[in-house]
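To close the chapter, one final illustration. This time we ask the reader to focus less on the individual chains and more on the assembly as a whole: which components sit near each other, and how the overall shape emerges from the parts.
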Amino acid sequence: MEIDPFIFRLSIFILSIFIGYYVVWSVTPSLHTPLMSVTNAISSVIIVGAIIAGLAGNSDTIFNTSSIFGFLAISLAAINIFGGFLVTQRMLAMYKKKKKDK
Amino acid sequence: MLSANLSAIFYLISGVLFILALRGLSSPETSRQGNLFGILGMAIAVTVTFLSIGNFSTGFVVILIFLLIGGLIGAFIAYKIPMTAMPELVAGFHSLVGLAAVFVAIAAFLNPEAFNLGSPGNIKLGSLIEMSIGAAVGAITFSGSIIAFLKLQGIMSGSPITFKGQHPLNALILISIIVITYLLCSTQSSNLFWILLAISFLIGFLLIIPIGGADMPVVISMLNSYSGWAAAGIGFTLENTALIITGALVGSSGAILSYIMCKGMNRSFFNVILGGFGAIEQSASAQNKEQKPVKSGNADDAAFLMKNASSVIIVPGYGMAVAQAQHALREMVDTLKKNDIKVSYAIHPVAGRMPGHMNVLLAEANVPYDEVFELEEINNDFANADVAFVIGANDVTNPVAKTDPQSPIYGMPVLDVEKCKSVLFVKRSLSPGYAGIDNDLFYKENTLMLFADAKKMTEDITKNL
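The assembled structure is written out below.
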């Protein structure tokens, strides 16, 4: 009997939760704000779904409802991706050690 | 056109890069590199998606336009936003992830062929369940984050909004979400799908309104977690590894942050979620201690105390963010250091409105991060320090949490500020903090209250040093 591919995805999911658990506990508390902004940015990888929806139509059906929701989702996710990574970059650039900036 | 197997491998690579992005945050030195890994992972995921579909017709151009619009808005916000507004920004971003998840779920529901999920009215059962979960959680994230955003911005009052029958109502809605999901899966009716979305938006709204302003660190972390689970739900629908891995990472990250925040307040997660903290006690307990004598001083007194100290510990809180006093504070500390006074910063886990809020503000003001310490690292040092300078913090310094089992904050870990030889407390008035309880510290023999705006007081002290 074959195993449903869903089970494999579920396995990836569960193992990733554990990876997340250990990785996040090792994040230093002083970087918890950048952690939130970067998790924000990476969770916008949901843009891949939006792209699939947006590209689904041919030239006649390009602006059907499904694609329009895709396009809107692309913009929303793009705000998050660019905004999230750039603001994280901006914050992290401010964390300096003692002597350096004097 | 990329084969399905090859693109799956690339998605896996970007998932791994996202793990490395979070791993980098274990120290400030590696964090910048970690962020680059994250960007690389995102670039790979987006490129692979385009290549695997391989349809570069009109749709491609339209997508680039929308991508560009979003990207420009995002970049603009990222460069303009002041660091004090970071909690609002993050709440706002969460709402966007939630809404994007909802939109992708709608697109997939309306056009399942594009996603290989069957045909409209005949979507694969598993996919439909995953889609519904992703959409519902996304909708909750969206409306919840909007409320959090409005509360943080001050557009909506930060005080908890409670009404009779709130909890039964919420429970009822949550149950009906499950029932509707079940019916949706058995009938494939699109009306049910819209109803599901509508009540999910509603419950997100209802869940956050009873939670008060100072509990925002928990709320933001919780919504962070939700946005991850929403992404994971969509990831299952799209059978996309990158999305599943990311969703799980973000979901557990938010959950851990919520846990840390709850522990910092010694409250259970459910206690925070059910909301209404402080609403009852506020009026009752504030009255009876007013007659106690309080020593108050001016900038000159404070400067004198600090000049004669050999070590000073600074305790910043949300008030510092409100007054934008971080730069003035750093200037004061620079002057102190010139006089060979040892200065360090003590940060309580729930200081501010989001995890790590104070650290970012101090970093912005060019405070080196190795002078900034967490509660456990520094709490023993208060006994040996000469002056504690409390600026904008209140409840997190209240000794009542250690002494009075009757107090609502009893058992909350607090900074042992009262062990210092003298305490300088910058505050606008004697009003109680968020928890609605009086701070014993105000009336201690060795406490000098400095009644003023945090920024102005700090500047005045610097002048007097």
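The radius of gyration of chain A is 19 Å. The longest helix of chain A spans residues 65-92. With these observations in hand, you are ready for the problems at the end of the chapter.
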